[in-house]
Specification:
The protein is of the alpha+beta class. The chain has 2 domains: 6-91 and 145-173, Rossmann fold (3-Layer(aba) Sandwich); 98-132, no CATH class. 21% of the residues lie in helices and 25% in strands. Strands 2-1-4-5 form a 4-stranded antiparallel sheet. α3 packs across α4 (113-126). 28% of the residues are buried. The model is unreliable at 138-166 and 174-181 (pLDDT under 50).
C-alpha cells in the first residue's frame, strides 16, 4: 500500500437493526494511508456499527468496505490479518500496567522470551511511554476512554499493541463521545 492510497474505503454502507433502527444510511468515506481519521457523532450515530463492519464483526445490509485494499466482506480473514483493534472496554486493561498490557498482547500473538521483551521496550520507547510503563490506567467515567472524550480514530501509524510481531496496516480505536466527561 503506497503513501496516499486509501487504507480504508467505505461506499454506501447501510445497516438496519430490528425493529427498524437505521444505524447507517449510505455512509461513504475514504481514509488516505498515513493519516489519522476520526469518526465523530453522538451516541446512536453508527460509529460502533461502522467499526464492527470494518473489523468484520458485522455485515452491512448493503454497500462495500475495504481495508488495506482487502474487501472485508469477501475476504474477512485476510482483512482481520491487517487490522489491529483497541476496544474501549477490556476486562484486563484497567488491572494491568501499560507494560503488562503490551506483554499480554504479545503473548496472545505468540511472542515469548527476549523477542517479547524487546518488542515491548521498543513500543514503550517509540511512543514515549517508557516512564509510565509501570502505571495502571486510572479509572474514568463509564464511556470515557481516557478521562475526557475521545472519538474513534483510525491510524496507519499504530501503537502496534494489538499485533506485536508486525504492525497492522490499520489500527482501530473506538471510544464514543460520551458527553459526561
Amino acid at each position: 500500500m503506497s503513501e496516499g492510497s486509501a487504507i480504508v474505503q467505505a461506499e454506501g454502507l447501510r445497516k438496519t437493526y430490528k425493529p427498524d433502527v437505521r444505524a447507517l444510511d449510505g455512509l461513504s468515506f475514504s481514509v488516505p494511508a498515513g493519516t489519522v481519521f476520526a469518526l465523530l457523532g453522538p451516541n446512536g450515530a453508527g460509529k460502533t456499527t461502522t467499526v464492527r463492519i470494518l473489523t468484520t464483526l458485522a455485515r452491512p445490509d448493503s454497500g462495500s468496505a475495504r481495508v488495506a485494499g482487502i474487501d472485508v466482506l469477501a475476504h474477512p480473514s485476510r482483512a482481520r490479518s491487517v487490522i489491529g483493534a483497541v476496544s474501549q472496554h477490556s476486562g484486563a486493561v484497567s488491572l494491568l500496567t501499560g507494560q503488562e498490557n503490551l506483554a499480554l498482547q504479545g503473548k496472545l500473538h505468540g511472542m515469548r522470551g527476549r523477542a517479547l521483551h524487546r518488542r515491548v521496550a521498543g513500543l514503550l520507547d517509540q511512543f514515549g511511554l517508557a516512564g509510565a510503563a509501570g502505571a495502571r490506567r486510572a479509572r474514568t467515567p463509564a464511556g470515557c476512554a481516557d478521562g475526557w472524550t475521545s472519538p474513534p480514530s483510525w491510524s496507519t501509524a499504530p501503537p502496534s499493541c494489538s499485533s506485536m510481531s508486525r504492525p497492522p496496516a490499520l489500527t482501530l480505536r473506538a471510544a464514543p463521545i460520551c458527553g459526561r466527561c
